[in-house]
Description:
Strand content: under 5%
Largest sheet: none
Number of strands: 0
Oligomer: single chain
Helix content: over 70%
Number of domains: 1
Structural class: mainly alpha
Organism: Cereibacter sphaeroides (strain ATCC 17025 / ATH 2.4.3) (Rhodobacter sphaeroides)
Distance between the termini: 99 Å
Mean pLDDT: 88
Number of helices: 2
Protein name: Pilus assembly protein
Amino acid sequence: MKLLNIFKNFRNDEDGAVTVDWVVLTAAIVGLGIAVVTTVSGGLKTAASSIVTDLGTTMTDAAKATD
């Protein structure tokens, strides 16, 4: 009977199931974060490059205007 009780307790124990839920949830959040960074990074690089170009042009024009 003792072995049967041990098996029933093991079957009814849900501590491991909660851990699995948290692992799956964490993996989903990390995956979503990676997807967002991958999607946004190309646009950010383009925007930063455009800003650098515009600032360079503005500085050149300002230097010419002071001469």
